[in-house]
Amino acid sequence: MLSESKVGSGAGRRYLFRGVMVGDGRRAAGTPLRAAQDEAGVPPGFWTGRGLAGLGLVAGSEVTERQAELLLGEGRNPNADRIDAELLGAGVDPAAARRATVLGRPVEQIS
């Protein structure tokens, strides 16, 4: 059964990254996501869906910790670091470069 409830600031991200992504286990602070998944016997996440190409992602590729952090924790494109670097290298204003990667609101801000 799936349920939905509002999560307070910061708690949603912690819940996802320290619990759900490691099979509802407990991930110690400072432990890399992939190491915690291996320890818990949980396979890594993989990208799937019709909109992947629009985000510069490939179906079946592994979701990295940084990509999950950007998408879920910051509401940004999972490849925002690369996009920011390219835009800044092309002389785009830093604020405009950041705005170019925003997709929505971070998990903590979703009602």
Descriptive keywords:
111 residues, mainly alpha, disordered N terminus
Nutshell version of this structure?
With 111 residues, the protein is mainly alpha-helical. Helices cover 41% and strands 0% of the residues.
Structure description:
- The chain is an all-alpha fold and 111 residues long.
- Helix content is 41%, strand content 0%.
- It is built from 6 helices and no strands.
- The protein has helices at 11-18, 33-40, 52-55, 65-74, 80-89, 94-99.
- It is globular.
- Mean pLDDT is 81; it is low at 1-8.
Shape: globular
Largest sheet: none
Helix content: 40-55%
Structural class: mainly alpha
Beta-strand percentage range: under 5%
Question: Which stretches are low in confidence, meaning pLDDT under 50 for 5 or more residues running?
Answer: 1-8
Compute the average pLDDT.
Answer: 81
Oligomer: single chain
Number of strands: 0
Q: List the secondary-structure elements in sequence, H or E.
A: HHHHHH
What does the secondary structure layout of this molecule look like, with pairings?
Elements: H1 11-18, H2 33-40, H3 52-55, H4 65-74, H5 80-89, H6 94-99
